[in-house]
Every structure is written in structure tokens, then in C-alpha cells.
């Protein structure tokens, strides 16, 4: 069972999405990821976007560790319901609405996002069937909504190729954890 690793809700169990449509981030990968992100000083006070949120575990972890706002975007009905349950738990712990769930396709959500809306930290953990051209298109649509100094984290199977980064994003790190690879990117200065 997955749990919130640290912060105000640390140790709290998370509801998981039933079935095999999602691939939850393991606690080991989550711990390593957030240790790295906290070293970059991008979690506390951040505006966070969790695309292909699944259970919402990464966004909820961010909120537990002090993110200002978190948007979870998930199109699957069951997964979206699980996101809402985990968001409600976290919002109850912190005593205010930090986490908001959006039941939407990622592409539609980004298309509807108001110009000027920006995020400091973005997670993308797309389903395996998402092909590389579609992934590149999502990254391109995301770029105008990244704050200066933002960090984008793409989580994929270690068997998947590195994402095709748009000209507005530059990879600055890559980490492998067994079957999972994390790619870290940032906006190119003057690129969005």
C-alpha cells in the first residue's frame, strides 16, 4: 500500500486505483524523487501540476511537504475518484483546500488553461500506451505555463525512450530506479 512519505501527512496511507491501468510510483522512488526536489528547493510554496495523476500520490506528497497549490489532472473515472479521496484526506489534514482534482484529458486541460497560469513543479507519469509524439505534444503545450525556474519531472518505464523535449525545455538530470526512469527538465531561458 502506498503512503504519504513525509510532511504534515507523513505516514498516512493513500487510496490506490484498483486494477492495472495505473502504475503507482513506489515509496522508494517517491522518497528519492522528493529528496532531490527538496535539494532543488522547488517543493515548499510551489504551485504543482500532476498530469496523468493516477491516485494523485505525487501531488498529495507535494502538498504534504508544503506546496501552496496542487492540481491533479486525471481522465479515468475510477482514478479520478481515488484522486479526490486522497485530495480530501490531505486537505483535511492541512485544514484548507490545497489539492484540486480535474477530471480531464491532459491535452484538453492544457488547452483550457488560462494564459498567465504558471506552475513551479510539474509531474508527468503517463500511461504506457502514450506514444512519444503525443508525449512531446503535451510537453510543448505545457511549456507556456511554466514559471521561471520551474522543474518538470517525467516518469516512465526504464524501457521507454527519453522524451522528445520541445525547444523550450532542457533536460538537466536523469535517474534510474529499477524499472523506473525519472527525467528532470527546466525551461530554457527566454524559451517559453
TL;DR?
Helix content is 30%, strand content 27%. With 192 residues, it is of the alpha/beta class. α2 (57-64) packs parallel to α3 (77-94) and α4 (106-112) runs parallel beside α5.
Give the averaged pLDDT, no decimals. Answer: 92
**Main beta sheet strand tally, sense and closure:** 7 strands, mixed
Count of DSSP strands? 7
Q: Which structural class do you get from the secondary structure elements?
A: alpha/beta
Helix-strand layout with pairing:
Elements: H1 27-39, E1 47-51, H2 57-64, E2 69-74, H3 77-94, E3 99-103, H4 106-112, E4 119-124, H5 132-142, E5 146-157, E6 169-177, E7 180-187
Parallel strand pairs: 1-2, 1-4, 2-3, 4-5
Antiparallel strand pairs: 5-7, 6-7
Helix pairs in contact: 2-3, 4-5
Keywords:
alpha/beta
Task: Characterise this structure.
With 192 residues, the chain is an alpha/beta fold. It contains five helices and seven strands. The chain has a seven-stranded mixed beta sheet with strand order 3-2-1-4-5-7-6. The radius of gyration is 15 Å and the shape is globular.
Amino acid at each position: 500500500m502506498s503512503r504519504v512519505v513525509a510532511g504534515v501527512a507523513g505516514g498516512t496511507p493513500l487510496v490506490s486505483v484498483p486494477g492495472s491501468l495505473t502504475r503507482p510510483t513506489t515509496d522508494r522512488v517517491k522518497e528519492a524523487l522528493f529528496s532531490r526536489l527538496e535539494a532543488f528547493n522547488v517543493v515548499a510554496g510551489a504551485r504543482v501540476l500532476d498530469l496523468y495523476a493516477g491516485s494523485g500520490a505525487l501531488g498529495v506528497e507535494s502538498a504534504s511537504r508544503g506546496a501552496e497549490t496542487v492540481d491533479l489532472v486525471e481522465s479515468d473515472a475510477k482514478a479520478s475518484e481515488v484522486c479526490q479521496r486522497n485530495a480530501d484526506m490531505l486537505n483535511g489534514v492541512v485544514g484548507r483546500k490545497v489539492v484540486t482534482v480535474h477530471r480531464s484529458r491532459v491535452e484538453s486541460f492544457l488547452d483550457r488553461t488560462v494564459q498567465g497560469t504558471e506552475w513551479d513543479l510539474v509531474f508527468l507519469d503517463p500511461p504506457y500506451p502514450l506514444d512519444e509524439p503525443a508525449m512531446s505534444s503535451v510537453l510543448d503545450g505545457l511549456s507556456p505555463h511554466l514559471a521561471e525556474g520551474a522543474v518538470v519531472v517525467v516518469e516512465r518505464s526504464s524501457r521507454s525512450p527519453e522524451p522528445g523535449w520541445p525547444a523550450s525545455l532542457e533536460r538537466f538530470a536523469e535517474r534510474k530506479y529499477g524499472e523506473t526512469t525519472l527525467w528532470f527538465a527546466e525551461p530554457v531561458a527566454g524559451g517559453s
